[in-house]
Amino acid sequence: MKNTNNPKKNSKMVKNTKNLISVIFLSLVSLLALSTCIGLLLNNAATRRQADASQSELDALESEGYYTTAQANQLIEKADAKARKEEGERLRESFREKITEGDRLGAIRSLYPDEIVTEYAGQYFFTPIDENIPESLVSGEDLELSDEGRIKYIGENGDIKITRGIDISRTQGDIDFYKVKSEGIDFVMIRVGLRGSVEGRILEDDYFKTNVTDALKADLKVGVYFYSQAINTEEAVEEAEYVIKQIANYDITYPVAIDLEQTTSTDARTSKLTKKDYSAISAAFCDRISEEGYTPIIMGAIRTFIDFLEPESLGKYPIWVAYYDFPQYYPYEYRMWQYSRNGRVDGVNTDVNLNVYISSKE
To answer: Which of 130, 144, 189, 293 has the most CB atoms within 10 Å of its CB?
Structure first.
């Protein structure tokens, strides 16, 4: 039998097979590389088209007045810097003006818009504005002060009602209430009496009966106030009882006020009272007045409500605040504002305190 196993021939076949496999492998690698390159080229082209489209959109936005985020941030920073500079200049000018006028307290207040600044015996007190206490029904922009000294509501809330009034005591002497009425005055707050700041005796205002009788005859609305120097809740109730007795026979439709003030005299019986004491005194007076069906109100300067009373007391009873500048500085809710102590009203022969009463229409 003929032997078919030729070593040389077999070796040549193996070599040819390996070469063929190598060629196929290299071809596949080349095809893969070519496909990858084509894919990259297509992807780059798509990316470029997207970039061109995005740039076109940005160009269009900029041409219409729009800005990129970076540009917008730059504009905001410039505007903020400009606003800070302008506000600083405004504050400095306000400070200069008030200092020139001798209004040191007002000058200091203009520098601390987020705090309530009060002063007593040459010492200044700074109290941060409490956002938890209800704000005023009206803002500074809602009210307008005329050249004649009248406050008018110019806000957009149609439910707000402003009425004009005066508060009086024996200091004003004899008053022609019919002339007062013709001046456009709606109400009169009349002092019932006072407690002595040293000896502590309750005294009647010797013009009270005449004032309340004549004011009602002139068809004016009447409220009353009592100058308190109570040092505890027992005396506060005593003052309320005195007021209730004095007004029992009159048609009192406006509030009944406790006037809380602290004298600068070291002999004053109230000189040692704390916020807790004042809060308890005002609550005792107002609660007793309310029990009789009258509307109680707490009267005082801004210092009364910031330095005398605890914060939780401020929203419990209506407030009658005395502040003689415009616009109003007190940031919290108030019902009545004594805005001038040297007003002139026909029928009153002396300067008189001017007030507005702020309420919601029913």
So the answer is: 189
For residue 246, the SS3 value is helix
For the chain, the C-alpha Rg in angstroms (whole number) is: 41
Phi/psi region, residue 200 (left: phi>0; alpha: psi -120 to 50; beta: rest), is left
Burial of 326 by CB count in 10 Å (0-12 exposed, 13-18 middle, 19+ buried)? middle
Q: Which two tokens stand for residue 74?
A: 């730059």
CB-CB contact of 125 with 117 (8 Å): yes
Distance between CA atoms of residues 154 and 334, nearest Å = 18
pLDDT tens column, 115-166? 999 988 888 999 999 988 888 889 888 999 998 888 999 998 888 999 999 9
pTM score, whole prediction: 0.74
Strands 143-145 and 123-128: unpaired
Q: In a 10 Å sphere around its CB, with 0-12 CB exposed, 13-18 middle and 19+ buried, how is residue 163 labelled?
A: middle
Give the whole-angstrom CA distance, residue 314 versus residue 359. Answer: 17
pLDDT at 14 over 90: no
Beta-bridge partners for 334: none
Which has the closest alpha carbon to 99: 89, 87, 111? 111
Cis check for the bond before 331: say yes or no (omega within 30 of 0).
no
> How many Å apart are CA 151 and CA 339, to the nearest integer?
9
Rounded Cα gap, residues 301 and 329, in angstroms: 11
Helix (H) or strand (E) holding 325: none
Give yes or no for a contact between 262 and 270, defined as CB atoms under 8 angstroms apart: yes
Tokens (6 digits) for 95: 């400070």
Question: 348: helix, coil or strand?
Answer: strand
